[in-house]
Amino acid sequence: MDVVAATEFLARSTTLTSVGWIGYIIIGALAGWLAGKIVKGSGSGLLMNIVIGIVGALIGGFLLSFFVDTAGGGWWFTLFTAILGAVILLWIVGKVTKSRV
Length: 101
Known about the structure:
By secondary structure, this protein is an all-alpha fold. About 75% of the residues lie in helices and about 0% in strands. Helix 2 (about 20-40) crosses helix 3 (about 45-65).
């Protein structure tokens, strides 16, 4: 992979979609709540759902950027990406905390 291709790949994987910051907060809250329902059967409170959803969107966006252009997605694609990443995040956190107990 040459320098230009690597730069384009990094730019594509970190580009924000067109939903805006308010959209990210709304999608983050919804994605965090849904991921909590999927993984553990309940949400984690509004603020924690937002954090889980936004971090999940970053994780999901990074993982999906290997396969598709994530910057081209709108609300629905961003929500799917955030849910996917949040489920992965909660699953990993669950595995790590379970191994400590």
